From TrEMBL:
Superkingdom of origin organism: Bacteria
Protein name: Uncharacterized protein
Regions that span the bilayer: 12-33, 54-78, 84-105
UniProt keyword list: Membrane, Transmembrane, Transmembrane helix
Length: 108
């Protein structure tokens, strides 16, 4: 499957997932680097005080999940050999496990 596939629905869904994963990755990195959540985000999500005190833990997990989703979609949108696509899918799985490990290991 690639961007030139005849089924536009799957291509559109994959591109939307790529855009969302890029947003999740950028938001997670921003939260980790600044060590604080945006005020609008706190108001919209109604975060509890305990969650607000853990920006590195939550932001790092979000960034890893965004990177995992991005790596998962790359073989379907970019033409590449099968072994490289399999390696990217394994990397996506590793990043998803790393996100869970990060959330458990990191106790701010």
């Amino acid at each position: 499957m690639s961007v030139s596939d005849p089924d536009p629905l799957w291509t559109t869904l994959r591109l939307v997932l790529v855009i969302l994963s890029l947003g999740l990755l950028a938001f997670g990195v921003r939260v980790v680097v600044s060590r604080s959540f945006p005020a609008a985000w706190v108001r919209i999500t109604r975060m509890k005080a305990r969650q607000q005190s853990q920006p590195v833990r939550i932001g790092g997990g979000q960034a890893l999940i965004g990177a995992s989703l991005l790596a998962q979609q790359a073989p379907f949108l970019i033409p590449m050999p099968t072994p490289a696509g399999g390696a990217l899918l394994m990397l996506a799985l590793l990043l998803a496990v790393a996100a869970a490990g990060w959330y458990v290991w990191r106790s701010d």
